[in-house]
Fold:
Amino acid sequence: MPSPESSPSVSVLVAIPCLNESATIAEVVRDVPRSIPGVDTVDVVVFDDGSADGTAAIAHQAGAEVVSNSHNLGLGLTFQRAVQVALEKGATILVNIDGDGQFDPGDIPQLVEPILSREAEMVTASRFKDRRLTPDMPWIKKWGNRRVAQIVSVASGARFSDVSCGFRAFSREALLRMNLFGTFTYTQETFLDLAYKGLGILEVPIAVKGTREHGESRMASSIPNYGYRTAKIMFRAVMSYKPLRFFAALS
Structure:
């Protein structure tokens, strides 16, 4: 049995995708814990998706490495770039947390621990698993989140309560086996992609803010548009991995 000194180093890369989050990005970067039980190193990288409000400069001043898109590419492609950077840096775990301040970086260890203990390959915060932690948010968004979770649960054959939350952690194995195609978002597609490949997914109830303190959400500013675009991504994933189930449902 190898000694503790010869054990592989465990590194966490905390990716913060953002678009025009100058009001909150510095606080999010500074609040990321640099010491996590069972982890040797923590790196913070802000993935700026073409911001025009100085987000990149503020993030750099706060202590983060910054990777900037030359123009707005969309959350899906920005997350795929975060996966690429995490693999290139040899990260053991990738943690994704939004830069709008709705999630508390202090909860990152709760997402990392189940991966370290090999309970799951992907761990995601759930806003609805524990009803006592359900955030105060517009009823239409709450209703929409739950309907999408039901669709993904049926399509994947597993039960999930929240498939749209952007606060989650991935093992290196999950990153290596992940294949994503959506440019608009990645949140629901990762559930289907990893579930179809038999990788364990765990939901952890975590209290989050139901609304942004600054600005408006670019992802869900229009509920019909958000629903349409995420549905296209989910249908493509199901059609690719479970064509018989997909066409049987249509028929």
About this structure: The CA atoms of residues 37 and 109 lie 8 Å apart.
